[in-house]
Amino acid sequence: MELAWVGAAYGLGLLASRLGLPPLVGYLGAGFTLWGLGYQNSPLLEQIADVGVLLLLFTVGLKLRFASLVRLEVLGVGGLHLVLFGLLSGLIGLALGISPNAALFLGIGLAFSSTVLAVKLLDDRRELSTFHGRVAVGILVLQDLVAVGLLAYAGVKNPTPWALLLLALPLLRPVVGWILEKSGHDELLLLYGLGLALGGASLARHLGVSPELGALLIGAALAGHPQTSELSRTLWGLKEAFLVAFFLQIGLMGLPSPSALPLALVFILLLPLKAALFFVLFVLFGLRARTAFVTSVSLSSYSEFALITSVAAVEGGLLPESWSQLVGLVVAVSLALAAPLNRSVHNLFQRYERFLLRFERKGLHADDEPTSLGGAEWLVVGMGRTGGAAYKMLAGQGYRVLGLDADEGKLEFHRAKKRQVRYGDAEDPELWERIDLEGLRGVLLTLPDLEAKLRAARGLKQRGFSGVIAATSYHREEDPLLQEAGANLISRPFAEAGERLAERALGINPLEEAEDPRPTEAEPAKG
Q1: Which residues contact 11 (CB under 8 A, 6 or more apart)?
Q2: Taking every annotated instance into account, which residue ranges of this chain make up the domain Cation/H+ exchanger transmembrane (predicted)?
Q3: Residue 365, pLDDT score
């Protein structure tokens, strides 16, 4: 049976990838295919899927900043959307003849967005730490907290009076951080991360709270620690492999009866309305159209919690048993539709930019980007390790340098070192359309994501910028794409690291003070 799971997931995942779709679409298809062949879910697959989800939320916790949860656009938009879309979905349920309690479960369950899908796709695009990534994760965490309360009301999870102790998990930071530093860099680090995720989940489960919330909170206890980036990378492969089981599980729930398919279609057709409602609320709360659009697409799916709440309603006799399969199909289709949309979200915004900008409110926005470089001669886009080193070298030569990054953590780090850095998203076409390039000698693109570097180079080229456009390249096949986009200088960090090592061995370039390890754009994008 295990061979059938792996074989079907790999085969259809590979097919989806060849068709330009995310592999997870293939994994969902593999689940339905296996169900059609008579395979059923098993305790082993369920346990693997659970561990995958726990690892995913643990790594989200490693990057979580609690300040991002209390932002107005998180609490305001997240709360209003939950009420409005939940009310709409619940009214549809009432119209179909289900009880008010069942309609409540169904409506709020469908108002949730998939944490697994959104976080995975944001992580794949290296956008978890960007402004829109933090807003999306904040809303997802808010929804998860509401889901815990909903499940407690249903009797699925009954929090004990000691459940509030989970909020004290971040106080364990000195202890878990000290052990993390002693865990080295190999399999002990992997085992420690796995143990933390499972331990936090087990504690939450014993306290009657969602284990996913426990994994997220124990990860948050380490947020900002210098070694969290390495821990996250170490867990990456294990997390991705185990998450395949989660998507297989959804397909193995099977298909509803043909008579229920029109109803499933109704809920699927609500997806554009769900995304549009997010977009309108984000704009009303003062975000730019681009941020509102990208974040809305990230949240445009139905959640795995919809499956959990529907099962709770079935077990409680509120809904017929067939509703579990119906909701399972609706969630699976929403994930399959949202995955390719998220992959091309920046292209979609560029295509419909003129239309979407009509909805943008005038005045200052929380995510405004610079239009003036303040007299800078060099612009470094991407202030991770490579960008930080480039900034330091240029500034040391007496040049006026400005750094841009969409990650607030990196900006705070460099500001503490008295460096001139500002918020800026390289994938935003508006940034390159509005920014004043006068007096600029060159732009260094030290971002991890190839697509972001291509967009930036094209934007500069379209503006007729004649200075140096330098970009990092992690694979030789990237070189012609960067050159075609407008880059006239390409650096290969991995190849040049050996040259620098030889220089230092010869005493040509003495070792300099190391930059903080948290900004890690020096690894190539996975996928």
Answers
A1: 26, 30
A2: 13-339
A3: 66
Confidence of residue 298 (pLDDT cuts 50, 70, 90): very high
> Residue 329 belongs to what H/E stretch?
helix 322-343
Residue written as tokens 């990208």?
A: 294
Smallest Cα–Cα separation from 130: which of 521, 524, 527? Answer: 521
Six-digit token pair at 471?
């970009």
Residue 469's DSSP bridge partners are: 443
Residues 6+ apart with CB under 8 A from 13: 23, 24, 26, 27, 30, 244
* Partners of 402 in the β-ladder: 379
The label of the residue with tokens 């309690």 reads 101
Amino acid letter, 306: A
Which domains can be identified in the chain, with CATH numbers? Answer: 45-357 (1.20.1530.20), 378-505 (3.40.50.720)
pLDDT tier at 312, thresholds 50, 70, 90: low
State the pTM of this model.
0.69
- Is 442 within 8 Å of 454 (Cβ atoms)? no
**Rounded Cα distance, 3 and 370, in Å:** 53
Cα 445 to Cα 12, 58, 269, 376, 381: the distances in Å are 36, 30, 40, 15, 5
Mean pLDDT over 85-112 rounds to: 84
Q: How far apart are CA 129 and CA 382, in angstroms?
A: 12
Candidates 306, 310, 312; CA nearest to 324 is 310
Torsion of CA 363, 366, 372, 376, to 10 degrees: 170
Query: Mean pLDDT throughout 305-325?
Result: 70
Residue 516: DSSP 8-state: P
Polymer length of the chain: 527
- The amino acid that residue 55 corresponds to is L
Say how many C-beta atoms besides its own lie within 10 A of residue 513's C-beta: 5
| Interval 380-414: pLDDT, tens | 998 888 889 999 999 999 999 999 987 777 888 89
- Please say whether the beta carbons of 274 and 334 come within 8 A: no
The residues, any chain, with a CB within 8 Å of residue 485's CB and separated by 6 or more, are: 453, 454, 457, 458, 461
Q: Name the token pair of 21.
A: 């779709």
| Rounded-to-integer distance, Cα 487 and Cα 457, Å | 6
Determine contact, residues 10/233, Cβ cutoff 8 Å.
no
Is 162 within 8 Å of 207 (Cβ atoms)?
Answer: yes
Closest CA to 122 of 133, 112, 108, 110: 133
**Cα–Cα distance between 345 and 16 in angstroms, integer?**
18
- Tokens for 399, please give them: 């040049």
Measured between alpha carbons, how far is 45 from 5 in angstroms, rounded to an integer? 9
342: three-class secondary structure by DSSP: helix
pLDDT of residue 512: 55
What is the separation, in whole angstroms, between the first and last Cα of the chain?
Answer: 27
Helix (H, G, I), strand (E, B) or coil at 427: coil
- pLDDT reported for residue 517: 43
Q: Find out whether 203 and 214 touch, Cβ atoms under 8 Å.
A: yes
pLDDT tens digit sequence for 187-207: 888 899 999 999 988 888 888
Cβ atoms of 331 and 264 within 8 Å: the answer is no
